[in-house]
Structure formats: structure tokens, C-alpha cells
Amino acid sequence: MLELSRVSLGYGPIQVVHDLSLTVPDGGIVALLGRNGAGKTTTLNGIYGLLRPVSGRVHFDGQLISKARVHTHAQRGIAYVPEGRGVLPGLSVKENLAVSAYAHGLNRRTTSAEIQRVTEHFPILRERFAQHAGTLSGGEQQMLVIARALINRPKLLIVDEPGLGLAPLIVQNLYEHILKLNREEGLAILLVEQYVDLALGVADHSYVLEKGRVVVDAGKDSIGDSAELIAAYVG
Fold it and tell me: Which residues of 98-137 are buried (b: 16+ CB within 10 A; e: fewer)?
């Protein structure tokens, strides 16, 4: 589904990511791990078109998207939830979801149906429909931004640090929802996460970055053998 081939990324003269190759298969969950500053968010920005690769290629569903405009990524079926949640605090939960639907060109009837569909995965949001998003807990806000990203029925969901600033038990609950999305809808997921054990627990494949280079490339069967090495780079 998603394939990066020897992609290098940077900001002006500063190169951050070097010759990165990475694959997210249909229906797979892939974790991108590493310390702060390793190049994880830069990689996600490069995938979503917020940053043009210096070299290398990004393919999605067999099409080259390295030079495509950002808005076309959503049309192709890529949804990106950046770090920091970013709800519209003065709008209600339902209005936050509706804004996303209207941005994707959905009509009122379809919007209502899609809001009902995405909140099946996060029932607490239905109880909060009329509540201002800015008054939700951190975990509820994270559920809201993920639900908002699902409105357009993406094939690939990219999530940057979903557990940032949340208590471990809340993060674990959030991951149960993410895993359910993958299993029930076949949604492919690429995630960056600080809770390494949780990420490794759900991922089919894991990549670890160190100074912008892949230093660990491990499938689910070999993650156990690579655990000490992964810990050395992200601990």
C-alpha cells in the first residue's frame, strides 16, 4: 500500500532523514520508533506531502505521490493525525466531526451517517456530542481527532504520538480502539509512539530511527529477538 524507497528529507540545507525505506502493507500496523529528534515526524510530514523529499520516492497504491499536493493525499485515502490533537475547542464534539465531513465535500445526510459510523468505535464521543471539544479530557480529545480523520473512510491512518501527555491506562484503552479499527475495518495504520511496549504489542512491523536512519527493521516474528536493540535506541 505505502512504500518509501530511499527517501531523504530535510529543511533547507539541513538533512534530517537519510535514505529511508519503509513499507506499510494493506491492513497492516507499522510502528515508527526512535528518540526525540530522530526524524519520525519529519518522515510522516514527507509521506503526507507537507515536506517534499530531497531524494527518493513515495508510492501509495502503486501511484507516485512524492510530488503530489497535500489535498490529493486525503482524496487518495490517506488520513493524518498530527501530534498535539488540535481539536476546535469552541465547537461541540458533533460540530468538530461535521466540519471534517463538510471539508471532504459530504452532504448533510451523508455527514450524519458518517458521524454515527465513526463514533461506533468511540461510544464516549456520542455521550459528549453537545460538549465543547476544549472541555474534553486528553484521551477523549485524542479519540475525537482520530474519529474526525475516519470521516473520509481512509485506507491508511497515520497517527503521530497518540499517547502524548496521557496516562498509561488511558493510552492502553486508546490502543484497544486502534487495534479494533484495524481488525474490523482492515484499516492500515502507521504510528509514531513514545509508549514503545504498546506500539510493539500491536504492530506487525517496526522501524527504529536513529539520527534519521533506520537502525532496526523488524517484523512481528523477530521483534522479540530485537527487543534489547530497540530498547537501546529508544530507551
Answer: bebbeeeebeeeebeebbeebbebbebbeebeeebbeebe
Q: Are 20 and 8 in contact (CB under 8 A)?
A: yes
- The cell numbers describing 207, all together, are 522501524
The burial class, CB within 10 Å (0-12 / 13-18 / 19+), for 173 is middle
Residue 3, number of CB atoms within 10 A of its CB: 16
Residue 234: the pLDDT is 81
Mean pLDDT of 59-76: 91
Report d(CA 230, CA 145) in Å as an integer.
Answer: 29
Per-domain boundaries in the chain: 2-234
Domain spanning 2-234, CATH class:
alpha beta
Please tell me whether the overall predicted TM-score, pTM, comes out greater than 0.85 for this model. Answer: yes
